[in-house]
Amino acid sequence: MKQPSSITKLIGKFSSLPGVGIKTAQRFAYAVIDMSEAEVKDFCDAMQAVKTNVHMCTECGNFTENEVCDICAHRDKSIICVVSYPKDVIALDKSGSYTGVYHVLHGTLNPLEGRSADDLNIKSLFRRLDGVKEVIMATNPDVEGEVTATYLAKLIKPFGIKVTRLAQGISMGSDIEYADEVTLERALDGRTEI
Amino acid sequence: MKQPSSITKLIGKFSSLPGVGIKTAQRFAYAVIDMSEAEVKDFCDAMQAVKTNVHMCTECGNFTENEVCDICAHRDKSIICVVSYPKDVIALDKSGSYTGVYHVLHGTLNPLEGRSADDLNIKSLFRRLDGVKEVIMATNPDVEGEVTATYLAKLIKPFGIKVTRLAQGISMGSDIEYADEVTLERALDGRTEI
User: Fold this and answer.
1) Are A6 and B86 in contact (CB < 8 Å)?
2) CB burial readout B37-57, b (16+ within 10 A) else e
3) Residue B155, in any domain of the structure
4) A85 with A104: CB under 8 angstroms?
5) Which of A37, A135, B112, B189 is least surrounded by CB atoms within 10 angstroms?
């Protein structure tokens, strides 16, 4: 038995979203059938509004609806925190302890997959370095993130700017028993006096 | 820091889908930003097409784009398999061993949540009973499913029609050690000679 073709097509669309398999996409498609026509229209309007209104901040590359994002417009520009993706900005800013600005690379260096420095939002970072005291590298602590951080640090240091990296160690609430060796090694290396 | 309002709105829309939390909705919203405008339009068209083209089969209540669904149009109408939701039709039909038709209730009886027989697609089931030899109850083996099956069986039996229920027992590939007591009890009750 074949499903109606418009359902099959919508399932295909939903399964193109990250982490969505056929079963989940099917649930989503049935949820759409259960929505009212007004709700579906609203949903589509929201999708199209994001596409129309949201673009990259001309300074930091984060998503914004204005020319310059809220953070670049109002915060301390003498510290720049470099992240890979816009979602990292949200996560870091939730901690509330950081008052500087961000710079979003929109990816990490990965020569094997053909992502070189030209594919990332790097040029605009160097246009912002005037008057900057510190650049914090907040790329993920994996191979690509480390490579990207080291690459950028090497280019930024000659400007006489301090380059730092987020501290690595055991996470809050985690179990030392289950922590991996690299994490424990870095936690020991970075131990602080109490 | 606040996210652009159109992103927040789209995250809200995505989190209205079944099983989607804020973090997942956020990933989906960012995936939409990464799509091309044509892709977003296509996605919206697919959502709206489903809403416009798909409706319930006038006979069985399953989703179809025609007046009568493929299954009702071509298969043996002397056996009806009653299921709760359209997705159950897909699951059961995948097994390939069933040649009869289905009847989709679009829910189960649940007096506590105020779902009575009038809220389900039940009336049309009784209009189809002419010439039917067997009705298979394929509602889920949980309290609501059992109640619904028992309720319908009581109403259908007086027509002189055989009413059956899907066999219950241990699933293929499962572990007897971890099976619950009710399942094991039913597996023992329904044991077959080899």
Assistant:
1) no
2) eeebeebbebbbbbbeebebb
3) yes
4) yes
5) B112
Identity of the residue in A4, A31, A87 whose CB atom sits nearest the CB atom of B17 = A31
Q: How far is A123 from chain B (nearest CA, A)?
A: 21
Give me the pLDDT at residue A174, please. Answer: 81
Tokens of B187: 């597996």
Segments of chain B scoring below 70 in pLDDT: 1
Token pair of B93 as six digits: 């039909």
Q: How many helices (H) and strands (E) does chain B have?
A: 8, 6
Query: DSSP secondary-structure letter at B106?
Result: S
For residue B154, the surrounding DSSP H or E stretch is helix B143-156
Does residue A114 register a pLDDT over 80?
A: yes
Closest in A1, A4, A44 to B54, CB measured: A4
Residue B13 domain boundaries: 5-53
Q: What is the pLDDT of residues A94-112, one digit of tens each?
A: 888 889 999 999 999 998 8
**Once rounded to an integer, what is the mean pLDDT over residues A61-90?**
93
Predicted confidence at residue B85, as pLDDT, reads 92
Q: Considering only residues A170 and B52, tell me which one the structure prediction assigns the higher pLDDT.
A: B52
**CATH number of the domain that A145 lies in?**
3.40.1360.10
Same domain, A69 and A155: yes
Tokens of B107: 């829910």
pLDDT of residue A1: 58
Residues 68-87 of A with CB under 8 A from B: 70-71, 85-87
- Residues with Cβ < 8 Å from A191, sequence gap 6 or more? none
Cβ of A70 within 8 Å of Cβ of B32? The answer is no
pLDDT tens readout for residues B30-66? 999 999 999 999 999 999 999 999 999 999 999 999 9
Dihedral of CA A176/A178/A183/A189: which sign? Answer: positive
Check which CATH number belongs to the domain holding B18 and give it. 1.10.8.420
How many contacts (CB atoms, under 8 Å) link A and B?
Answer: 135
Q: Which residues contact B42 (CB under 8 A, 6 or more apart)?
A: A13
Give how far B40 is from chain A: nearest CA, Å.
Answer: 7
What confidence score (pLDDT) does residue B147 get?
92
Determine the Cα angle at B37 with ends B36 and B39, to 5°.
65
State yes or no: pLDDT of A2 exceeds 80.
no
Q: Indicate if A106 and A149 belong to the same structural domain.
A: yes
Which residue of chain A is at minimal alpha-carbon distance from B11? Answer: A46
